[in-house]
Each structure stands twice: as structure tokens, then as C-alpha cells.
């Protein structure tokens, strides 16, 4: 099956969009270059925390727990994003990159490099 929407990047914005589209029954696929959802946070400098208070950073459908730190540490955020993608059963290809995208009429053809080799999405 081909996704109706292709989301490039499995960070907060990409996963939140995927969750909302899933709730609307719109087939969507997230392409994430890192090995795991949330690695874009885990792979940053050691002392990084979210710069906004936690109440500004909730994702759709599953709020952060009430005991969550006001300024969330990066690894905790990375783990949350991975758990979020699993809990909402989001379609995500990790360790994958978009190599090329070309519009043909009213459709797109997208070349994706995955761990299993190249794939073409339309």
C-alpha cells in the first residue's frame, strides 16, 4: 500500500502530524533517518533540555505524565517520542532517507533508501 502522506522526519512535529492523520484515517508514513524514533533528541549534547515548559510541548492524544519535569531532559524526550510512536502504532521507517522526490502531474514519486534497499513510493 502507498501512503497518502509522506512525513520526512520522526521528531515531535512529524510524529504529532502522523498521529493526527491516523486519527483522521489518512494513510501516512514517517521516514526517519535515525535508527530509532527520538534519536534526534538522544544524539544531541548531554545537557540539552526542552527550552519550553512541559505544558507547551504536549503531543496529541497522550499528554506527558503529571510528574514530568518542567524542562524535559533530551534522553527522556527521546524515549517519550519512541514510546509515543509505538503506543499509537504509527507507521515509521527508521534508518531510512529520502534520496529524491519528483512531481509528476498531480502525484509525487519518492525514492527512499531503507536498510532493506531502495524503495519507490508514489
What is this entry, summarized?
This protein has helices spanning 12-23, 39-42, 74-87; strands at residues 5-8, 28-31, 92-93, 97-104, 107-114, 117-121. It has 122 residues and is of the alpha/beta class. The longest helix has 14 residues, at 74-87.
**Helicity level:** 10-25%
Global outline: globular
Rounded radius of gyration (Å): 15 Å
Q: Kindly estimate the percentage of residues that lie in beta strands according to DSSP.
A: 25-35%
Low-confidence parts: none
Number of helical segments with 4 or more residues = 3
The end-to-end distance, rounded to whole angstroms, is: 10 Å
By DSSP, the count of extended strands is 6
Strand arrangement, largest sheet? 1-2-3
Class from secondary-structure proportions: alpha/beta
Order of helices and strands: EHEHHEEEE
Mean pLDDT: 95
Main sheet characteristics: 3 strands, parallel
Describe this structure in words.
The protein is 25% helix and 25% strand. The chain has 122 residues and is an alpha/beta fold. The strands form 2 sheets. A 3-stranded parallel beta sheet has the order 1-2-3, covered by helices on one side. A 3-stranded antiparallel beta sheet has the order 4-5-6, with no helix packed on it. A hairpin with a 2-residue loop joins strand 5 and strand 6. The longest helix has 14 residues.
Amino acid at each position: 500500500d502507498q501512503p497518502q502522506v509522506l512525513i520526512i522526519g520522526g521528531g515531535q512535529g512529524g510524529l504529532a502530524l502522523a498521529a493526527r492523520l491516523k486519527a483522521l484515517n489518512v494513510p501516512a508514513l514517517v521516514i526517519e533517518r535515525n535508527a530509532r524514533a527520538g534519536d534526534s533528541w538522544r544524539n544531541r549534547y548531554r545537557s540539552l533540555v526542552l527550552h519550553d515548559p512541559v505544558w507547551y510541548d504536549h503531543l496529541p492524544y497522550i499528554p506527558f505524565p503529571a510528574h514530568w519535569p518542567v524542562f524535559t531532559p533530551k534522553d527522556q524526550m527521546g524515549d517519550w517520542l519512541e514510546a509515543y510512536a509505538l503506543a499509537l502504532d504509527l507507521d515509521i521507517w527508521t534508518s531510512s532517507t529520502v534520496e529524491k522526490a519528483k512531481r509528476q502531474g498531480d502525484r509525487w514519486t519518492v525514492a527512499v533508501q531503507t536498510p532493506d534497499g531502495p524503495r519507490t513510493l508514489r
